[in-house]
Amino acid sequence: MGFIRNRKSLTGLIILGFFVLIAIIGPWIAPYDPDALGDATLAPPSPEHWLGTTQVGQDILSQLLVGTRGVLVVGFVSGAIATFLAVIVGVTAGYVGGLTDEILSALANIFLVIPALPLIIIITSQLPSAGEFTTAAVISITAWAWGSRIMRAQTLSLRNRDFIQASRANGESLWRIVTVEILPNLTAIIASSFVGTVTFAILSEITLAFIGVASISDWNWGTILFWAQSNQALARGAWWWFVPAGLCIALVGMALALINFGIDEYVSPRLRTTAARSRDLKRLGITPRVGFTPVARGHLAPPKPRRRPKPHEPVPAIDTSFAMIEEEANR
Amino acid sequence: MDDPQPLWVQYWNYIGRILRGDFGLSFTYYPTPVSEVIAQALPWTIGLVGIATLLSFIIGTSVGVLAGWRRGSWIDGVLPVATFFSAVPYFWLGLIAIMIFAVWIPIFPASGGYAWGAIPGFNIEFMGSVLYYGILPAVTIILSSVAGWILGMRNMMVTVSSEDFVTVAHAKGLKERTVMVGYAARNAVLPQISGFALALGFIVGGTLVTEIVFSYPGIGFVLFQAVNAKDYPLMQAIFLVITIAVLVANLLADVLYVVLDPRTRQD
């Protein structure tokens, strides 16, 4: 499958897989209890404590290992809930049309414009106990709108394609058309929307923990940063306290971004071919220029003839960029 | 608290008071009215977040134009770096910036909006101090938000530059630069602008946290204090102000879109 063979998405999947593994086995392989106080206080990395210790002698590596689970659980749970909402709202709006579409689109636009993070901060701070699942729920309520907009645009363009028309003429039920004909064609977009939402959810969750709004009794990477910040780790030069957590966040974020690039290149062949071809041309000593067809005798394989997409496989020319959405929105 | 009036009457009165600019008294800064607290913080946020976001958009779009146009050149090397910075939370980049440029090499201040000695007002000393204190937070915001604009613009450039009108422009013998800026970029920037309007809510949220890290005297820092003190009137008002600011910016982006795209003016 092209998506797996794509170098970017493969790298992303490997990094993400590593963190998923840590999330599962983290609490067992952690060398210390993350809450346990120790004698070595604010110690830099050493053989006993690979990533150093906090002000009260807690082992930072153990906090990091134990905290991975919370980060990924909140990320994936909110990603799943938000994507589910996005599919329901987006596909309904796109397929049913009319007044329903107007109302749902207006709702999505409102949620899109509301600054999500301040809203999440305010809601979470007013809830009595903000555990992991509460946080996930609040994040997903604010994060579904973007996906639903893309889903709607794509459903609109699918709705009038021949194979949908044909199944409608065949008298297939609405449920069957949506689940069997439309949803499979949205797979790539749903996946990309899910990955994007997970990124957003992880960043929001860590921010919440960092500013001390979410419960600070559960360990996650944001909690580590919260304690580092409130104990003046910066001024004391204790870089080992907050650098590893941030790097982990960046790695997970990058892995998700790479997966999304892979999906983008998979659905939008223009992004893929141009990147690959310019690399090939460089190897042959030709400077690629836009709008010119390079002639190289016998080195480059002739382009493969384009196949027509069958109804059940993803339509290759789907462009998830804004141009598409705008075009649909203006119609 | 023990208001005998029904809820809807209270709500109606509340809306009325908001329209008159009366948000009640802040708990944290008691007895200062909320509107006054916000009026003091807002210019800082608009100055820092506004300018940094605009700069980031302009820089990111320009780099994106080049990256999309000269594919396979050294500019492609920017992409992985940009991806890394976009994956890092704003506040963490702020922490690192403070560590390097305020603790290890103390050339910039770690927190605050201006020097202790400076007297707020339109004098050179104060303005200079504001600029000096603003550099580190601004660079942090730009670094962490620029990647999105680079990637978006690059992908649009890739899509647009294989259109026929670009080939025709080349065939006419127009200068490379003219084709790149006037033909390809001119069209590729349109979705970028509507994207700017939509992404603003996300960006503003992130930049507010930057203010918290730098203890910058803006809306984000006040919101942080309000949340910790359960100062509901202040929180409500701040959220309202942020939302209105984002809406206004959206309106401006829409107007700009109409100016740039003649097709939207035809009907």
UniProtKB/TrEMBL annotation, chain A:
Stretches that traverse the bilayer: 12-30, 71-96, 103-127, 133-151, 239-263
Boundaries of every ABC transmembrane type-1 domain copy: 72-260
PROSITE patterns associated with the record: ABC_TM1
Positions of the UniProt region annotated as Disordered: 296-319
Primary location group: membrane
CDD domains linked to this entry: TM_PBP2
Alphabetized UniProt keyword annotations: Cell membrane, Membrane, Transmembrane, Transmembrane helix, Transport
Name of the protein in question: ABC transporter permease
